[in-house]
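Predict structure. Chain length: 88.
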Amino acid sequence: MLQVIARELWLQTLDDQAAALRIRRIVSHMKRRKPVRRTRPRSPPLTPAIKARIRHLARTTDDSQMQIGLRVGVNSGRVSETLAGKRR
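Prediction complete.
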């Protein structure tokens, strides 16, 4: 589209104001827009009680992080973050 405008300007079949207007319209379509929708969180927020339960299960059982997550109702990534101290 910009090539068409450049060619029309070069051939002088389009005046500067009209070209500027068309270019502004094109640029407005090129701007990044906010996402229309986001996915809903799959895990509930980690309350202090849930975090304490995750730490307790990790200390007292031989369960994997995935098994602990299934017991508590969160994904294994949240269990990992909690045990690593990233979720205080």
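Summary: The chain has a mean pLDDT of 81.
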